[in-house]
Batch of 3 targets.
Target 1
Amino acid sequence: MTLKALIALVLFLPVLANAQDADRGRAAFADCAACHMVKAPDGRALFQGAKVGPNLYGIAGRTAGSSKGFNYSPSLRQAGQQGLVWTPETLEAYLKNPTTFLKKWLKDDTARARMAYRQSHSARDIYAFLKSAK
Ligand code: HEC
């Protein structure tokens, strides 16, 4: 292998790794699709799913509770107004236990999440998929 090819390979590896995370995340998203879809603003369904929860298109890096046309719980809307943004870390903590997460975030023991779903494994792949779904 030439040095140029080696450098190209090393530079390309993180891109490849990201694509793999996103592929795994797409597969894992099947669980989420029981309640969520990923639908682009032009109407393309990037992942078919139900409307129990908000459309998760463009969620990576976005303020919580800000998808138009969804009736969020008061707690999630409030968390967004107080600056909650979806990152790999906040998504993972939220998915572990949405209500516990919101109670902590809002420092309010009466906070309640409306998402009846929990998962204990890493949310990194799902985040990578949601970030890549365009
Ligand atoms: C049983 C239905 C259900 C399942 C399954 C589910 N969710 Fe949700 N999700 C909801 C509902 C309902 C809300 C709105 C919560 C609220 O208003 O408090 C929500 C909210 C969210 C939000 C906040 C969206 C925003 O606009 O701020 C994210 C992010 C999210 N879900 C991710 C996921 C992911 C990722 C999965 C799969 C690992 C998943 N959810 C599985 C029902 C579900």
Target 2
Amino acid sequence: MLNVLQVSGLSHSYGKRRWWNRTETHSPVLEDISIDLEKGCCLGLLGSSGAGKSTLGKIILGLQRPSKGQVLFEGCNLYSTNRGMPKSVRRDLQVVFQDCYSAVNPMMTAAQIIGEPLRNYESLSLAEMHRRIGELLEQVGLRVEDGAKRPEQFSGGQLQRVNIARAIALKPKLIVLDESISSLDMVHQVRILDLLTELKEKHGLSYLFITHDIQAAMSICDRIAIMEQGRVVYNSDDPESVFLSDHPAVKQLVSAILPNHPSDLTYRDN
Ligand SMILES: Nc1ncnc2c1ncn2[C@@H]1O[C@H](COP(=O)(O)OP(=O)(O)OP(=O)(O)O)[C@@H](O)[C@H]1O
Ligand SMILES: [Mg+2]
């Protein structure tokens, strides 16, 4: 299988901080990370707060030059030169962050937001553009009429679905989802997870799914990696095997799974 992403020997620290007349060097945020992602697969990245997940996500997106190591996206070294990323790579690499409001221009309508990547990368007729935008709105569980609304007229969960529609519009090769669905209610979380799985199977999209929700990760991911203090402490292509791991960070995540109903507690204790 082809790797869409190859991260090797990646380390990062956020530079120096001046505090009065002292200069403090930040301790490393990432230490010697090597991780691969196969085409058409979803890699779940979990770990406690501050473990370095978002930093790794930003480096993979070409947004943060690492102190050491390399990132190959489809064989292209993202940090080989000081020039920005080639346009073709940018098209194939999309992101949905947790903060849905800061990701959009408040003056644009949902249809304009979703249509932006289509306008930038594809030359579609007006009718085809409307059709594609309508289809994308419906895919994420919004109505075609919602395309006329501005960000302030949506709830957080609805606006996040606009962001997801924009990210999938070009059927990119890799989408980094950083805590992107945690603001959605359960019904829409399931709907988006189903949609992501369908796109993965139909179009070979790959995902880096950063989350605190191990159950959501297990439902969609082909591989799960767990980070602790800047290191990958668990990485397996058998998501179920998290239950067998002896590593304290993995055990802590697994023990955080709550029963669906209090009566399940007796079942869990057995
Ligand atoms: N721009 C920055 N400048 C300095 N330090 C930073 C910066 N961004 C993150 N850090 C530090 O890097 C470490 C890792 O942060 P990161 O946001 O990658 O963690 P995370 O695993 O995504 O956490 P969370 O689950 O809370 O989102 C933290 O100690 C954080 O304080
Ligand atoms: Mg984060």
Target 3
Amino acid sequence: MTQQQFNPPFDRSAPCPACQHEVRSVSALIHNLLNRCDVGSSTIRDGKAWVRLWDLRHTTFPAALTVPHPVADELMAVGRALVEATEDMTSDGLTIKGSAEIRARVEALIPRAAAASDAFNALSVMHFDDQRHCSGSHQNILREWKGYSWNGHVPGANLGGEYNYTVEVVSEGGDIAHTACGTHLKLHDHFKQNIARDPEFYGQVWCPSCRQNVPMWQFEISEAPHA
Ligand SMILES: [Zn+2]
Ligand SMILES: [Zn+2]
């Protein structure tokens, strides 16, 4: 019997560990903690780090990963190590305190936490770029997309940065054509890579001539887009 895959990302590639809610929560809390640290010098930068650590102590870690993955495993392990390192933290309801010993134990874990957080970011980007992960009923819409993405915690790792995924109207050729209005579109490689990996990645396309989102099936793909 052939095993069918229903898990995101729905394209028969490996299922996504970032779909698990508790994993994303722990990831977000570690990310927030690192924003209060100076990763380069492995030090806690400001007092809000204690609040972040308090939050991490009070979050629910997943009992098990629904999708076993070494990167998610390491992130959960470093999260648990941070919880252990802060075992004797105190709060009187107003201020959260940590001793010099706790600070030293946490600071020793910063490089490992930063590396794990940056590695998990790649999985997280894939997760949030595909609307179908969040809800099976959502469709990805192919349209021009630009902005800045997060640069990572580890200095010099050069994650993210500026992106500008273009969709150009061309008089002929291009990569896809709207059969209803005859508009040809030339796509940035980002879109072509997604379509090549998963022909059903995009459910809809923004047609600049029709000025609306139309179903992907109304488009003719000029030639199999390749990455
Ligand atoms: Zn996912
Ligand atoms: Zn159109």
